[in-house]
Amino acid sequence: MDGQLLPVLLLLLGVSGLWGQGPGPGGPLEEPPEEKPPEEEPPEEDGVLVLNRQTLGQALREHPALLVEFYAPWCGHCRALAPEYSKAAALLAAESARAMLAKVDGPAEPELAEEFAVTEYPTLKFFRDGNRTHPEEYTGPREAEGIAEWLRRRVGPSARQLEDEEDARALLDARDVVVVGFFQDRDVATFLGLAQDALDMTFGLTDRPQLFQKFGLTKDTVVLFKKVGAGGGRGGLHELHLPLQTSSKIFAARILNHLLLFINQTLDAHRELLAGFREAAPPFRGQVLFVVVDVGADNDHVLQYFGLKAQEAPTLRFINIETTKKYAPERGASVTAAAVTDFCRAVLGGGVKPYRLSQEVPPDWDQRPVKTLVGKNFEQVAFDETKNVFIKFYAPWCAHCKEMAPAWEELAETYRDHEDIIIAELDATANELEAFPVHSFPALKYFPVGPGRKVIDYKGARDLETFSKFLDNGGELPAEEPVEVPGAPRDEL
């Protein structure tokens, strides 16, 4: 497999440059150039390159996709961005993405600040293919997943070679959706081409027998992993095995809308529905991908993801794989060609509301200092106009969530006797909300007392002292004393 991969991977990495420059045989002889001292290797802090005037050029040569933050040590916005920036670097590194994050201390490097017209902090600029004269101004999100996604869309994904279970776990922990090609007997060039085209996907690739055994595979296949709550899948993952002949169509087509027919292929009455399902498909070519799911096969993971039980088949579900919004027909609806057509048109036309998953409300949800919220009681608690509600949206597998858990428990204990303050948490992998999506973890949001359904994103440090200051100040961190720096660029608003 390695012999097949090497030429393709070199192409995907975009190896460029002129080889063998200089005079050929018989050309003029030149004095050998003076030996240059070795270039200084830029240091890293939390996965982010720390650059200066001497090392920026080297970084541009080595990294064809480089996002550089110009910051000032005294800048409050820069300090707030720092942990998200480092987290974005970790996400991209775990995916072996072809993008690198770096930072430059603007006040300490005035020549670079002047060269790139930096007049406020933080300023972020994206350099492509070493082009130093026309960097792209970064105006994207300031949270980790948003930064990483912005870069993914510009450089495309890479297919990471997985050598062992540790490699696989690192890749699967990095994203909500990951596609892995398991190949031992097949040329993988086509799969890598799909990875290059499907800009919103993260891809892995392996031929290691121990990983085939780990995931219960006996033949070449493509597996889509999607994170779920702690109770589902292996290690918090749903696995959807895609036959090779259909996986290539799914990814190559780039069709975001999928209509799934759930049937039991062992029942004649269910198999008879396939003709009508196929009949309804042609008018939606290019718009909707029609998929058949056999509930009698090993597809429990798919049923769980849609909140279905096998006995509910035959039934339809519609999903947009970009927004992950899911739609269901009315209970008891027939599965005829006309019914399928009407359902598709209604969803595409906005006539059907998406449904959302929710765990059941625990009987003791409000008995602990940290209240337990699920989809079914979220609106009632979060938007209670008589309470200030501070909620941690977490994922059970998230290391950062586990790290801050003790501080969150301490916070709840500290304010347990404040009748107008509620400290709560919600597993955002098992509960979907109508008010807003949650894509990064932990996400901390504050819902202040009063009407208007106001939501404030918390961006401060994740410790008891800072949490308390935020609550005591009415959902706003106290302003820091400004540090006067003569001639310094102004802080970004």
TrEMBL record:
Record-annotated Thioredoxin domain positions: 30-156, 362-476
Which compartments is it annotated to reside in? Endoplasmic reticulum lumen
One of the GO biological process terms: platelet aggregation
Residue ranges of the region described as Disordered? 22-45
**One annotated GO molecular function:** protein disulfide isomerase activity
Keywords annotated in UniProt: Chaperone, Disulfide bond, Endoplasmic reticulum, Glycoprotein, Isomerase, Lipid-binding, Redox-active center, Repeat, Signal, Steroid-binding
| Cellular component, GO, one term | endoplasmic reticulum lumen
Give the Enzyme Commission number.
5.3.4.1
Q: What does this protein do?
A: Acts as an intracellular estrogen-binding protein. May be involved in modulating cellular levels and biological functions of estrogens in the pancreas. May act as a chaperone that inhibits aggregation of misfolded proteins.
The record's family statement is: Belongs to the protein disulfide isomerase family.
Quote the protein name from its UniProt record. Protein disulfide-isomerase A2
Which species?
A: Moschus moschiferus
Recite the lineage of the species: Eukaryota, Metazoa, Chordata, Craniata, Vertebrata
